[in-house]
Amino acid sequence: MVRITEDLVRKRAEHNELQISSLEEVSLHQQDIERLEHLDKWCRELKILYLQSNLIPKIENVSRLKKLEYLNLALNNVEKVENLEGCESLRKLDLTVNFVGELTSVESLCNNYHFRELYLTGNPCSDFEHYREYVIGTLPQLQWLDGIQIEKSERIQAVQNLPFIRGRILEQQAAHLKKRAREKAEAAAKQNGKAKETDGVEGDENEESNKENKPGFDGRWYTDINERDKKDVKKEEKSHEEKVDEFWNEKTAYTPESRLEVHNHLQELKTKEEKKDDVEQKAPRKLFADDGRPYNINEPKLDFSLTEDDQNVLLDLAIFKHLDTSSLECDVQPTYVRLKVRGKIFQLELPVEVNGDDSSAKRSQTTGHLLVSMPKVKVKQIIRPKTHNSNSKVNKASDQKGKNDSNFLEVDASARKAVDVTSIVADNEEKKMKAAAPFGSQMSRRDLPERENSADFVDDPDVPPLL
After folding, report:
1. Is the pTM higher than 0.85?
2. Which of 57, 206, 317, 418 sits between 20 and 30 A of 25, alpha carbons compared?
3. 316: helix, coil or strand?
4. How far apart are CA 319 and CA 366, in angstroms?
5. DSSP letters of 244-257?
6. In terms of DSSP H, where are the helices of 250-334?
7. Which family, according to UniProt (predicted)?
8. Which residues lie below 8 Å from residue 359, measured CB to CB, with a gap of 6+?
9. Closest CA to 342 of 372, 401, 390, 302
10. CA nearest neighbour of 98 among 124, 136, 64
């Protein structure tokens, strides 16, 4: 049984900073609440109260809500309109799809002067003859009934015919109350019968008979004693499914008891499923072998192709065309690629080492396929010192040199691209000497023999020598 608790009300009061004393509106719909209580003490300022889609059988504990203007109790188990006289500000009451059969109970709303709208669609009383005329004639302040506005002429006619209509309403109401008493008795008998079936099992006899029927207790040998247990489990599951089908195919009247029975049945199924899920929890999948090698896994069972060229390794995965891309996760590692498709793992070991940081994933807008491009890791060429043959004479001569000799890297002459600058100065001097020599002569002035002085040569020390 779900009760209205303070924590539940505070959770629904988030818009009011979790304060319930000053709360003016609260929604407690679809909470499987089975009793209306405590709100008249905790939330005196309430103006709007939503309680639809619960299991409330009676309107109660709301008479202190003087400011309440709108009460929604649609889709509950209410059978009577009552205890609303103290709600002085009540303007609208919604009892759609309940079990109100006592139509005369609407007379309790006569003194609610602000009352304007009433919804009784889907209740047994709405099938009564002269139902609408009776409600209009009984509640003069009402303006809307079941979403239809009340006309003045309709009200005048209903007031005039009310004394005659009321007698017919009382007859139909009495017949409905007898029917409800019979339905309650049948539901109680059915409930007691189920309890007797549960408690009346002869435990000891059944245990002995089950023990005799089990393999290994009848004096025979069995190759697989668990085989029969498996058959028994399947038989039990089949009988359970048959019981479920029988429950839903059984024809029953639509009553508060049947609605409560359906709710309890659904709760039992939900509890069994939760227990089954707890028992059948799968162990976490192992993604790597003991030596660290990644396993190849294809949980989503998708078609794929893995190709490679000189630069990249390409994975083409046939993702479902209409699957949202937000449901995909991709992780590229040097030796494997892993994807999650709606939580299911796809993992593939790669033939070569790839660069995960530079990888990319693109999805086709037409086919939905996912293409993962993973560039290969390139091995860089390392320059190492040239090693000489230990038997060569050159190596022996070099070993005899001092320990301070340096080893130089030998580079192939064909690979030399720079200009040789070591002979630039010598070449320039040679060119100058050739330019100073007379035409046709290949010798410089410095190489010419010195000529003898003439007879009339006078050596004047004041004259500088010729260079």
Report:
1. no
2. 57
3. strand
4. 11
5. HHHHHHS-----HH
6. 256-279
7. Belongs to the tilB family.
8. 332, 372, 373, 374, 375
9. 302
10. 124
Q: Name the one residue in this structure whose structure tokens are 């293409």.
A: 371
| Beta-bridge partners for 93 | 71, 118
One-letter amino acid identity for 334? P
Which three-class secondary structure string do you get for 187-237?
Answer: HHHHHHHHHHHHHCCCHHHHHHHHHHHCCCCCCCCCCCCHHHHHHHHHHHH
Return the amino acid letter for 179: K
Give the integer Cα–Cα distance in Å for 190 and 194.
Answer: 6
Asked if 51 contacts 61 with a C-beta cutoff of 8 angstroms, the reply is no
CB 116 within 8 A of CB 126: no
Can you tell me the distance from the alpha carbon of 445 to that of 436, in angstroms, rounded to the nearest whole number?
Answer: 8
Q: Under a CB-based contact definition with an 8 Å cutoff, are residues 69 and 92 in contact?
A: yes
Segment 443-465, tens digit of pLDDT: 555 555 667 777 777 777 777 77
Give the span between the Cα atoms of 104 and 131, in whole angstroms: 10
**Which residue in 342, 354, 341 sits closest to 294, CA to CA?**
354
Q: Which two tokens stand for residue 35?
A: 């009793």
Whether 40 has a pLDDT exceeding 80, the answer reads yes
**What does the alpha-carbon distance between residue 72 and residue 53 come to, in Å, rounded to a whole number?**
10
Contact present, 112 and 91 (Cβ < 8 Å): no
Strand partners, 119: 94
Rg of the chain, C-alpha, whole Å:
51
